[in-house]
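Try this one yourself first.
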């Protein structure tokens, strides 16, 4: 015989299941725009049936429904792919941004009515030498050569200083982002502890897990990240191949500063703070980009500027000394100091500054009262002061004659290849950033299709669970009426 009050319990369970499902739907709707939120689902299951015996034998009668769990929609494989794409995209975006800054340093164009840039300075110096070749005794022509040479030196050093400043800024940003990694790692460790405590009774800490995954996503922007979930639900997180989180423990990173002695740039290496101080190998993310930009790209551009300075101190000076000045004396160094031979034989007999740029300047003697007469415009074989063949040879060094120091290029060719390569690298980084951005967006759309909240779907679920609750309530009302009849109206 069926128990009299059995149906009430069945319907009560139905009311509870419908209410939990409706509450879960409401939670989804209110968090539709919450960063990192994953759509949740109330998973229902039938309760065990009971056996009843009737005229036809044993019967299995259902006893209702229960809410077995509330789970979040999440795919670990897509999360992994998203984080890899996020690190790669941010690497190339940072590359593109920094290449843009370097291009601004080497900008060649017009500002107001003046043409600016290193190429303009080289061209102006070449033009002044051409004028001097035609008018070797003209004071204005000699002044122009000295001042255009000085402008070239200033532009070289200005570009160098901008690159050094950019490198120093990157070092500061690297330190800042390492601190961000340490802070995020501590937050993940705290969440590991909270999740373990909340799930010790068998439930699932959906919202805390979402927050933890959001923190890992933030890490993936900075560096290459890997995540391993233990049996207790704790995350082990590695950054650059080094574990920074294991359960409730964190392993901080530190920045060890060094020095690029050639250019007096502060460098840095990221390591584990605790022994054995394992170095971190960043392969993607903004940190990898910044380190590569500082240690390879910027240093490479400084090397190229330094090569130009070496060319001026060696090749240009040697040619200047092949001529005669206005006093019919042998020419001296146009760049640097009189007392220094910047290109001795053998070279080991002279130890220049670590950086050629440090020694580059227009010879101070050219700024003395009779300094303009020291510019050697004439050939040694000529007795004519108005002969300017050495000035012609000096101008040829800039735009006609190739140099081994410059890789068998003229100075203008060398600089053109230098900036041309920079432009290609910048465009490649921009294209790669755009491509990776599209891939990241595609992966994120795939992720959102699984984990995101679909408002149309949630509204449909809301109506469904509302109807289920109303139907269960109607059944309960009907049972109440039946029991009222049975108990109170049966004589």
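Now uncover the answer:
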């Amino acid at each position: 015989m069926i128990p009299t009050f059995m149906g009430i319990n069945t319907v009560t369970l139905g009311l509870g299941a419908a209410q939990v499902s409706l509450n879960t739907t409401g939670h989804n709707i209110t968090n539709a725009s919450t960063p990192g939120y994953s759509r949740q689902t109330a998973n229902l299951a039938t309760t065990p049936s009971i056996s009843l015996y009737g005229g036809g034998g044993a019967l299995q009668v259902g006893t209702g429904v229960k809410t077995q769990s509330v789970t979040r929609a999440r795919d670990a494989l897509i999360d992994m792919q998203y984080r890899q794409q996020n690190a790669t995209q941010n690497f190339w975006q940072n590359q593109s941004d920094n290449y843009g800054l370097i291009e601004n340093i080497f900008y060649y164009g017009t500002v107001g009515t003046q043409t600016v840039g290193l190429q303009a300075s080289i061209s102006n110096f070449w033009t002044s030498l051409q004028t001097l070749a035609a008018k070797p005794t003209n004071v204005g022509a000699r002044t122009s050569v000295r001042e255009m040479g000085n402008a070239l030196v200033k532009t070289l050093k200005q570009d160098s200083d901008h690159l050094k400043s950019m490198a120093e800024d990157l070092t500061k940003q690297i330190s800042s982002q390492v601190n961000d990694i340490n802070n995020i790692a501590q937050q993940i460790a705290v969440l590991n502890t909270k999740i373990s405590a909340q799930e010790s009774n068998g439930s699932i800490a959906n919202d805390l897990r979402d927050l933890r995954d959001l923190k890992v996503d933030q890490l993936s922007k900075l560096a290459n990240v890997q995540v391993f979930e233990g049996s207790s639900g704790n995350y082990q997180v590695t950054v650059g191949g080094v574990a920074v989180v294991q359960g409730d423990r964190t392993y901080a990173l530190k920045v060890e500063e060094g020095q690029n002695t050639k250019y007096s740039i502060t460098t840095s290496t990221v390591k584990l703070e605790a022994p054995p101080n394992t170095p971190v190998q960043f392969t993607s993310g903004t940190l990898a980009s910044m380190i590569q930009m500082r240690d390879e790209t910027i240093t490479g551009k400084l090397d190229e500027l330094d090569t130009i300075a070496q060319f001026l101190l060696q090749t240009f000076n040697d040619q200047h000394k092949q001529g005669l000045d206005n006093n019919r004396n042998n020419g001296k160094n146009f760049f640097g100091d009189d007392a220094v031979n910047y290109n001795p034989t053998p070279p080991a007999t002279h130890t220049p500054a670590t950086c050629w740029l440090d020694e580059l300047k227009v010879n101070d003697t050219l700024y003395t009262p009779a300094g303009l007469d020291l510019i050697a415009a004439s050939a040694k074989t000529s007795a004519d002061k108005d002969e300017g063949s050495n000035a012609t040879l000096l101008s040829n060094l800039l735009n006609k004659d190739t140099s081994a120091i410059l890789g068998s290029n003229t100075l203008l060719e060398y600089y053109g290849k230098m900036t041309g390569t920079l432009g290609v690298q910048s465009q490649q980084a921009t294209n790669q950033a755009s491509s990776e951005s599209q891939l990241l967006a595609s992966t994120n759309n795939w992720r959102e299709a699984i984990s995101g909240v679909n408002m149309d779907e949630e509204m449909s679920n809301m109506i469904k669970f509302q109807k289920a609750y109303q139907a269960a309530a109607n059944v309960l009302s009907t049972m109440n009426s039946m029991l009222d009849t049975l108990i109170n109206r049966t004589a």
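Discussion: The CA atoms of residues 262 and 355 lie 5 Å apart. The mean pLDDT is 92.
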